[in-house]
Write a structure and sequence with these properties.
alpha/beta, eight-stranded mixed beta sheet, 10 strands
């Protein structure tokens, strides 16, 4: 079905946005979101984390002043943390609270600029696949793989954290117990977890276990992996990440990721009832990850050096 033919969604998913100390990035994210056709019908929750250091105080306050000035949504609820939670803890807590209340959720961070068609796509996908138990996650962003021969929409086991959506019945399985994940996967499964050895995501699990890193997305991917769930991918990227300018948490600078998105043309898409893993897209992803060391992988390497004292 295309965007104009999709059955109307009677209850839109709440949007949850996590912000910290980047007022300019936050403004770009909000202004793009306001341009979405469903913005005025959507409820927006904004979680503002408290400063973790004295030098963050002014930027956190500037960001809070801005979010208190915005409109354009059906309802806006702002949650100001009184102490610093950190991004991972704040996301886990906020997503759990809101998805438990509403049954479904759309999640953004303060450096993600959305296409005007983002909310329509996410809500339509949430409605279409809500009863398809093997579908766990809707991706708004996708790695810039070679898409020749790959459909615009396809299923993979990879859950990206740059603009995503899910349901309460899937998120209830989220578990950040690092020992549980480590004990659950064999060496062969860890190889598959690492995209057949082309991208070492397992390092994040180990560093979290050691207390040297605090992230959340790898554990969500881990639960989907354990449950043999699938994620809906969209080659017509609806997210542009502006946090790869060096300001993003756990991110370096990578210009490649700034350019892959759809903004100025109407998006048409067809959902399929047949849900199967797309092997061609997975092979293309492995080619992409094996041909370059991503900015996040470089960040992991830097953390490992700091931990070892190099």
């Amino acid at each position: 079905m295309n965007a104009s033919e999709t059955k109307a969604v009677t209850t839109l998913a709440p949007i949850v946005l996590f912000v910290y100390n980047r007022p300019w990035h936050t403004q770009q994210t909000i202004e793009a979101l306001q341009k979405n056709e469903l913005a005025s019908e959507s409820v927006l929750f904004i979680y503002s984390d408290a400063p973790k250091a004295g030098q963050d105080q002014s930027k956190v306050q500037e960001t809070r002043d801005y979010i208190h000035s915005i409109g354009g949504f059906k309802k806006i609820t702002i949650i100001e943390r009184e102490k610093n939670w950190g991004l991972a803890n704040s996301i886990i807590d906020g997503v759990t609270a809101i998805v438990n209340q509403y049954g479904k959720i759309i999640v953004l961070e303060d450096d993600l600029v959305t296409s005007p068609y983002f909310l329509r796509f996410m809500n339509d996908a949430l409605e279409f696949y809500k009863d398809v138990s093997c579908v766990w996650h809707i991706n708004g962003w996708n790695n810039p793989i070679d898409a020749s021969g790959v459909p615009d929409l396809y299923f993979s086991k990879i859950a990206y954290s740059w603009g995503w959506a899910t349901w309460k019945g899937r998120w209830v399985h989220f578990n950040k117990d690092t020992s549980f994940l480590i004990e659950s996967l064999s060496k062969e499964e860890i190889y598959k977890f690492n995209l057949d050895g082309t991208y070492n995501m397992w390092d994040q699990v180990i560093l979290n276990n050691k207390g040297s890193l605090n992230t959340w997305a790898v554990f969500w991917y881990g639960m989907i992996f354990l449950q043999k769930g699938l994620c809906l991918n969209n080659n017509l990227n609806l997210i542009r990440c502006i946090g790869t300018d060096g300001t993003g948490e756990n991110c370096g600078t990578e210009l490649l990721y700034l350019n892959q998105w759809i903004n100025n043309k109407e998006v048409f898409y067809e959902f399929e009832y047949t849900v199967v893993h797309n092997d061609l897209a997975f092979e293309r992803l492995k080619l992409f990850t094996s041909s370059r060391k991503s900015f996040f992988q470089r960040a992991i390497t830097k953390i490992k050096r700091l931990v070892s004292g190099e």
